[in-house]
Predict the structure.
Amino acid sequence: MAMETVTLARIYLREGEHLLARLLDTLRDERVRGVTVLRGIAGFGADREIRTAALADLALDLPLVVEFYDRPERVGAILAHLEIQGGLAHIVSWPVTLHTP
């Protein structure tokens, strides 16, 4: 099995911010190697307002996590591009080992 060091970036959003479609389009256009979107069942951000998927909620504004990975220099360039576009406040990244057959 081959191993390669790549960078994994994680972007935290909320459904109500309406940034997901634009972000996915950008990541697709940049041809990143892999993208996954996770929808949270509960969470809170800097405003400390808890958002949850309880059945009583009529308007959903759930947390979203967008993860993508690629070579470190590509992720750095993509994050710089996303920073110029604006609107993304919570991004973390770290090196990971990619295992391929």
Summary: The first helix runs from residue 20 to 29. The chain has a mean pLDDT of 90. The radius of gyration is 15 Å. DSSP finds two helices and six strands in the chain.
